[in-house]
Every structure is written in C-alpha cells, then in structure tokens.
C-alpha cells in the first residue's frame, strides 16, 4: 500500500514533522511511504527503504510557508500520483496542507490527523495576555486572519471523510465546534522510545558543553511562542530565587522578548539560558541533563516533548491543559499544575529538585507508561488499521 504523507514540517520544525517521521518509520512492512514536505537544511530524511522523500520547497518556520506549501502540493500532486499511484493521502490539521486537494477534489482517498485547531491555538495565545506586537509572527497572522481562517477551517473539516484525533480533548473540541469526529478514532501520539532512552551523561555533555557542571537544570523545549507559557516559567524562576536552579530554554523561533523579560526580572544568562533551535537528533541527549522538564503551556493537544522527556527519564511538570492529563497521572508519573500559575509551577519544580527519591519514582513509572502506551510502534499499528478500514470503505 502506497501512502502519501503530507506536511510542510520536516523533523525539527515542529511536532507534526516529528509525528510524521515516527509514523512513517514504524508502519508495517506492507506500507510504502512517500513523504511530501519542505526541505529543512537542519534535518536529515528518515533512513528507511520504505520512505521516499519529495521536497516541494524549502522550510521556513513562518505562517506563509504553510500557505506556499498548499499551493506547491496542488501543483505537484497530480504528477506525483501519476508516477507513484498513491492508495491513500495522510494529511494533518491544523496545517490544512491539503486544503486545495480537498476543496477542488482528488480521486485519492484521505485520512486526516487532527493535532490542534485554529480555535484551540487561539485559546492558548489569548491566555498569554500579551499585546499583538509581542506575539510570534505566526500567532499574529492567525489572530489578524481569524475570521477568515475559521471559515476555511469549517470547510476543510467538512471535507475530511476519515479522521484521527491525537487526544480525547481535541476530538471533543471538534465534535462541539464542527459536528465531526464523534465516531472517529483517538490515537495518541507515539515516540521512538529507544531514541529517547537512557544515555551516558558523558555523551550528553559532549553535545552540550555549555551545560557541563550545572546542577538542577530545569528544561523547557518547544517553540518560543506565547501559548507555551514561557512567561509563566520566567516568573516561576523569579519566585525560586533562593534555590540553585538553572533554567534552560531550547526551541525554534525568536527568544529575544523572553530573554529581555528574564533580564528585566534579574535573571542573568548564567541562571536563565536560551539555547535557540536544537537539532532533533540532539534532543535525546539534552533531556537527561535536566533534573526537571517543564511545559507550562496555556493550550496543548498531546505534546510530544512531554512523552520524550518521560521516555528519557526526566521528571515532567506540565500544565493541566488539553490532552496533557491523558498522558500524566498527577504525582504518579509526573506533576500537573494549573496553567498561568507561576507559584504552583515553582512549588512543583522545588518538590522535584529537593526530593530525589520522589523524582526517581516519577521517572520509572513514566518511562514504563510511555513504552506501553505511547510508543511509535503502537501508534503506527493503530494508524495502519485506520488506513485499511478507510480503503475498504472506499472500495
């Protein structure tokens, strides 16, 4: 069976790119995958004989790149399909990368995974309470074009015949907002648990020498945008002035305003460090250096970074939003805190840093859970079932 997986993201741009990569590499052997994406010079194509990569342009982490990809896909798809005869197209929302294919018509059946929606993203951005000038370019464009994007999204969702949701949260959101998905599958995201497994610390510090010798590292990994709750993390560190904690931020996007916020709050670069983008293949060596991983987001569907940190053996503290409680059982395999509550975040971090036995117990149960429930192989097996049932319904 030939599957055309469609996403502008490729590996290190964002979570959808990682999702597609893990899925493509773990599908059963009777699936042949063609990955239609943008070229990312900082990432290598998946090394798998069953995965053929087709670059339809270059990746730039901007709002416009996704729109340009939609047009490039429409222009290229007929020729690609004539050459390879795809049995199925697998696309991802909220990117809507195959919007033109769905609206203008395509003879190839499709499956769409819903990772988030315009509305759920807007909810998180609004919760940040920042002026529009302080938002990331993609967040600004989404807000400015919100009425148009919501209309387009409704049309797009109405054209999706077979849906997969990454969490119960996002499925329920779509049932309420669009009246779709009530009978569709929830398949949680999965990761490569071997890739994000135990590592020799010397290998980790060799890749991140700037962190060597630092104790009590509190790590954030994600896009440097408002809805990720970076402002809450900075306020939490300010509330922890008496502790020997070093906060480290890694991710795509501009960190300038967050660095300015940290410095104005009295947090110098030795205590609050911004690494910038980290290549995806180096991330498994960053998590083990941290004593705690935080994701203080205001909105999430089912974040891969939480799964990666849990699999890597790093205690996780995350906001109790969206699909996060579907991953973490509070105080059993991680800690949940209310969103936008920097004092609760500070207290949770302190409890992990000060109680090594508690932290270790969280890590052991977390890794066991990810291996059993959130591995890429489990995700791929369940997704393959949807592929087959979709083709049976179309035949």
Structure report:
With 395 residues, this protein is an alpha/beta fold. It has 2 domains: 2-190 and 375-394, Glycogen Phosphorylase B (Rossmann fold), CATH 3.40.50.2000; 201-373, Rossmann fold. The chain is built from 14 helices and 13 strands. The strands form 2 sheets. Strands 3-2-1-4-5-6-7 form a 7-stranded parallel β-sheet. The protein has a 6-stranded parallel β-sheet with strand order 10-9-8-11-12-13, sandwiched between helices. Helix 11 links the parallel strand 11 (292-295) and strand 12. It is globular, with a radius of gyration of 21 Å. The protein starts with a strand and ends with a helix.
What is the count of DSSP helices, taking H or I runs of 4+ residues? 14
% residues in beta strands: 15-25%
The unreliable regions are none
Distance between the termini: 14 Å
Q: How would you sum up the global shape?
A: globular
Name given to the CATH architecture of the largest domain: 3-Layer(aba) Sandwich
Sequence of strands across the biggest β-sheet: 3-2-1-4-5-6-7
Number of domains: 2
Order of helices and strands: EHEEHEHEHHHEHEHEHEHEEHEEHHH
Mean pLDDT: 92
| Helix content percent band | 40-55%
Please identify the structural class as seen in this structure: alpha/beta
For the sheet with most strands, the description reads: 7 strands, parallel
Q: Predict the CATH topology of the largest domain.
A: Rossmann fold
Oligomer: single chain
Classified by CATH, the class of the largest domain is: Alpha Beta
